[in-house]
């Protein structure tokens, strides 16, 4: 074979290998020992806005966003020693400044001049539970508490040897006030990048807000080194050069003594507890030193919830919702009271949601309320009642399948039962949730969206869901007399709902002055201690001769939670 034929054969062989490589990649890179590009092939113009000639000799670090440096460094260092790392998503930038995430993996070859061979693929978007409709597995967006809990549960099934770590920047809320918006964003992006670089799969890190983070990592990750680096970044961002104390605690899953569904439930519960802004039942010190006690506490809590649910160990009480203009009772909200406990079962409900046990409790409430309707008919008084359903329940396709048969006894009088969808937790699947709401509405039951104005997704929910009633969060009502902005918001919500043919309910109505303000704002109904405290005897609201319990509220709003 002559030289020309040999060269042609080698080129064909090269092109054949490139063709195989491009079956799994959009771009191929070869890097020198000092991470400069020595070979590139693929969609260079589309991704970088640069030609092959322009890219040769460029350091790959110059092509990524600045806060992605730790992730890139971690990826490349992980290849040394003959290891091919799992794909890791990194944000690159084009010549024009456009951001393009790429999923990278590759191989380091000692015998080929210590070069790195990188395969780059444009990643698919994955669904998220956050208000953003889509989230990239790479980039500076990481999991929120809901999606992270789901990720940990799935990860545990096949990787029990990995670690779950919680990280907290103490007093972060006060610290953040010293930073402008850009500085806060830059610090957040940098911390998220360090977490992603340290995570086992590059998308197994979470930011819960207010300086709290979560991470799934390999067993050999040096957590102290990671937190030291985060601490240094915080100090650099501090205008005073002081920084914050960074606390961390890790669970070695294989050594925790938990397994299977119990482990997933326990870990998910711990994540939710840690992520809550003001959790008095969970601390990093507890996690670091008292894991068995925490697990025992979680088990006891779950057993208590199951016992209450299955045994119906609770009662229902009623609070009237009044037509503000006529002062007649429109319907009643059903509130749960756990036997042997006093006051609102807020902690019980939150724990049920965090442990994924709320659907069973919601169904138990429905059974008890439906039975009450059947046993307490009245020709003289309106006895329509509203049941609260957790967002976690209504967003679960199996829940509505279990609920629908329970409603059969009310098919001739569906107005006797309404449903309020609470936003104490984020709706996991808005499409499924809306389908469930429309199923209830098609059966003749009215649906109310509760807590409007308090959650991030309230306006989004109003657009996504067709509902009959909107309940305005009590915080606006409570402040409306003293705060002109709150009053304007009340009126704006009421006017919008009228255009949507949706009725409005205002919570926390405490006096006549507030009632008149709500009437002037065109709010339809009111609920609060001014019209009646929750009571297990509904006749107290129907018979004028019976004393009604009214008064000023001393605590938070009165709901099922």
TrEMBL record:
NCBIfam families: sensory_box. GO terms for molecular function: cyclic-guanylate-specific phosphodiesterase activity. PROSITE patterns: EAL. InterPro entries: Cyclic-di-GMP_PDE-like, EAL_dom, EAL_sf, PAS, PAS-like_dom_sf, PAS_fold. Residues 295-548 form the EAL domain. One of its GO terms (biological process) is regulation of DNA-templated transcription. SMART domains: EAL. Residues 542-561 are annotated as: Disordered. This is EAL domain-containing protein. SUPFAM superfamilies: EAL domain-like, PYP-like sensor domain (PAS domain).
């Amino acid at each position: 074979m002559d030289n020309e034929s040999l060269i042609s054969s080698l080129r064909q062989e090269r092109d054949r290998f490139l063709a195989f490589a491009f079956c799994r990649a959009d771009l191929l890179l070869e890097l020198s020992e000092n991470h400069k590009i020595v070979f590139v092939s693929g969609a260079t113009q589309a991704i970088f806005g640069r030609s092959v000639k322009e890219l040769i000799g460029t350091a790959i670090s110059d092509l990524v966003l600045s806060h992605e440096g730790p992730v890139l460094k971690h990826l490349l260092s992980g290849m040394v020693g003959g290891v091919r790392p799992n794909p890791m998503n990194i944000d690159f930038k084009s010549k024009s400044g456009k951001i393009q995430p790429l999923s990278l993996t590759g191989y380091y070859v000692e015998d080929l001049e210590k070069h790195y061979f990188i395969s780059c693929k444009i990643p698919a978007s994955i669904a998220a539970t956050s208000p953003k409709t889509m989230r990239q597995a790479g980039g500076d967006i990481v999991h929120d508490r809901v999606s992270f809990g789901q990720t940990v549960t799935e990860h545990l099934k096949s990787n029990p040897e990995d670690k779950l770590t919680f990280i907290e920047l103490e007093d972060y809320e006060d610290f953040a006030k010293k930073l402008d918006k850009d500085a806060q964003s830059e610090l957040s992006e940098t911390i998220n990048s360090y977490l992603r670089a340290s995570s086992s799969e590059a998308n197994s890190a979470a930011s819960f807000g207010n300086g709290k983070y979560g991470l799934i990592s390999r067993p050999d990750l040096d957590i102290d080194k990671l937190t030291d680096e985060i601490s240094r970044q915080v100090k650099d961002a501090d205008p005073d050069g002081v920084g914050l104390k960074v606390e961390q605690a890790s669970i070695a899953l294989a050594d925790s003594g938990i397994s299977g569904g119990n482990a997933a439930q326990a870990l998910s519960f711990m994540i939710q507890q840690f992520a809550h802004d003001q959790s008095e039942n969970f601390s990093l010190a507890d996690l670091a030193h008292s894991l068995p006690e925490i697990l025992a506490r979680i088990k006891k809590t779950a057993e208590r919830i199951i016992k209450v649910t299955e045994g119906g160990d609770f009662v229902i009480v009623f609070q009237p919702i009044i037509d503000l203009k006529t002062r007649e009772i429109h319907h009643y909200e059903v509130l749960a009271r756990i036997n042997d406990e006093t006051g609102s079962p807020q902690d019980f409900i939150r724990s049920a949601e965090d442990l994924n046990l709320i659907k069973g409790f919601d169904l138990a409430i429905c059974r008890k309320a439906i039975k009450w309707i059947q046993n307490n008919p009245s020709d003289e008084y309106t006895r329509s009642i509203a049941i609260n359903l957790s967002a976690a329940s209504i967003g679960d396709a199996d829940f509505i399948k279990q609920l629908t048969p329970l409603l059969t006894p009310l098919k001739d009088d569906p107005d006797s039962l309404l449903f309020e969808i609470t936003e104490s937790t984020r709706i996991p699947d808005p499409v499924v949730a809306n389908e469930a709401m429309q199923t209830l509405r098609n059966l003749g039951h009215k649906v109310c969206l509760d807590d409007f104005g308090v959650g991030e997704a309230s306006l989004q929910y109003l657009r996504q869901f067709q509902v009959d009633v909107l309940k305005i969060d009590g915080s606006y009502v409570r402040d409306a007399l003293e705060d002109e902005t709150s009053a304007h918001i009340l009126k704006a919500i009421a006017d919008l709902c009228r255009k949507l043919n949706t009725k409005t309910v205002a919570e926390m109505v405490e006096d006549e002055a507030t009632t008149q303000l709500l009437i002037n704002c065109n709010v339809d109904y009111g609920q609060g201690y001014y019209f009646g405290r929750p009571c297990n005897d509904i006749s107290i609201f129907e018979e004028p001769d019976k004393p009604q319990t009214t008064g000023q509220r001393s605590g938070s709003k009165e709901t099922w939670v």
